Amino acid sequence: MSAPAVIYRYQAPKKRNVENVERSLLWLSHPSKFNDPFDCAGAMFHNRPDDVKADCFYDALLNFDFDQTMEFAQDFVEEEGATSNSAALSSSDIYFRRQLSGAEGVTCFSELPKNLLMWSHYADSHKGFCLEYSTEYSPFRQLLCQVSYEIKMPTVAPSVREFGDLFELKKFLLIKAREWRYEKEWRIASSLSNAPLDYPPEALKRILIGAKATTRTVNALRRSVEGRPVSIVRLKLSDNRFRLEESPD
User: Fold this and answer.
1) Three-state secondary structure along the chain?
2) Domain segments of the chain: what residues?
3) Each residue of 227-241: pLDDT tens digit?
């Protein structure tokens, strides 16, 4: 399925989020920061390595223990540098290092700008805002991928000859439990993690401001796009329906 013409990113009214609007930045979070413990997880069929260190590294990866993973990775890199024979490295070392190199940062979007649950979960109970982006611009045009919603976790069973090369990390990044399908989510994954990714300012088309946003938040967002052709839209609670409506400002 091709990407929709516009996508939406819900945000809490934090200072850093407003600053990212002003600087035209997207924040790429490591999957360990997500609120769903099943997100980016998978059922991995893999023979446990025999050596203790690689076994601990395996556990660290599965549990998204980033600090522990980096410690083991540094040890493996040092060992690799100490030998001129790459064949001396164990297959488990190679497998885990390639796993680590694919540990990407993710930023999340939705097709829906007025979903009540998403405003509650991701925009601080309607006190935050929602950004509308045109997908005709980079990096959306090249990197945007649709999330699918499944009953079972994705699985992989790499053989010795398939270590890393055929391991599809994006399969883990783009599958969520069916309970989340109301989000109609799209994602950008990058080799960066817990870091910003820039986009052209013209990609931001509108800012929808939550029905319970403070005047301080509204003013900060207005200043963040001052001089740019970005529409500011205030949302309000409907008087007689469970929905959000655009309020004339």
Assistant:
1) CCCCCEEEEEECCCHHHHHHHHHCEEEEECHHHCCCCCCCCCEECCCCCCCHHHHHHHHHHHCCCHHHHHHHHHHHHHHHHCCCCHHHCCHHHHHHHHHHHCCCEEEEEECCCCCHHHHHHHCCCCCCEEEEEECCCCCHHHHEEECEEECCCCEECCCHHHCCCCCCHHHHHCEEEHHHHHHCEEEEEECCCCEEEECCHHHEEEEEECCCCCHHHHHHHHHHCCCCCCEEEEEEECCCCCCEEEECC
2) 6-247
3) 999 999 999 999 999
